[in-house]
Amino acid sequence: MASLADCGDCLPLRRGLTHKVNFYILATEKGNLDSLLLFEQKGGKQMYGRLAARRNAIKDAKRNLPGRDDSNFSQFEQELMAMARSEARQVTAAYGPKLEVLNGKHKPLLKDHERISKDYDAHAAKINRSEPSVELSRGKYYALMSLFVLGEIPMNSLAFSVFGESEIFTWIMAVGVAVAIPWIAHAMGILFKRWSVPWWKNAMGVATLLVLTIGGLVAIGYVRVQYLGDLSEAGAVSSFGSSAFIGAAFVGLNLVILAAATLCSYFSHDSDPMLEHLHRRTNQLNKAMRTIEAKYNKILTKQQQKIHGIQQRGQEIIYYYRKINQRVRPDQEKPKSFEGEHKLGVEFEQEDERRKMETATMPVQAVTNQPIS
Description:
β1 and β2 form a beta hairpin. The protein has a two-stranded antiparallel ribbon. By secondary structure, the chain is mostly helical. It is 65% helix and 2% strand. It contains eight helices and two strands, in the order ββαααααααα. 25% of the residues are buried.
């Protein structure tokens, strides 16, 4: 550890102030090393440290300052706390813009949440239930649908190779059909789940989708049969039963995927579309607000920790000043002002209260263990 005498860049101390040095070590009268607990301020000045506190304490004690019955703080203590307040204001000025940005993002989400919650309560009262009834979560539903699409691609690519197009166009057509089949199943599952009155309206929609889908699958199966027949005649592949049987097997596999995807869609949706929409939207808003609140509270905590650290270290310097002052005083009596405690100021407490993130006071309708997300 270097002493102050070893610090070439340091300017001479003047009433405990120094320049160009944020932190250094001094040897106390006992020879122990101790920190000056310096706080940097604008203009390069530093807040009083223990050395300045000791010097001022001895100086004031010889003059019996502060007076025994004087309730006012000494000039040294007032100047020290003024520097601490200035440092605390710099901290709030540094973190303030970040907090304002997050607060600006949070307010519109909160308004939307309140509006959606009112609609949610009204609709839930109308249908006599407040939670969607689904058996398959949204994440599992999307994962299964993706697997169905991946399973369809290789089967369809074989059929479209018969057109003799380039490989990239063959795969584009195969992917198109592979996506279309699960998408049709998605619509069919919703129609089955939300069967309306009169029944024939949904029945017509389901029948139309089934006819078109099965017709398309049969056509693709026919193309597969022709392609496999050509390959067999050319000797490119070994004969494997009848081409018609192979084509029927491909169609059957596609129908199994269609049925499975339809069941997934059925079990992942609620019979009431409005309730499902409000529930999902409430969850989305709630998640977004909690994310912003977590960031806001993290920044606010850092700000408060720094401000509290400034106050605590300032109090330590004041305690050290009072201890030395009372020890050196001729009467060694404790002045009345030493019974008082310093605070950074009410304005910082009010600032903390003002910057607390607004949160929704109404019960959140979303239930975390529900499958819908």
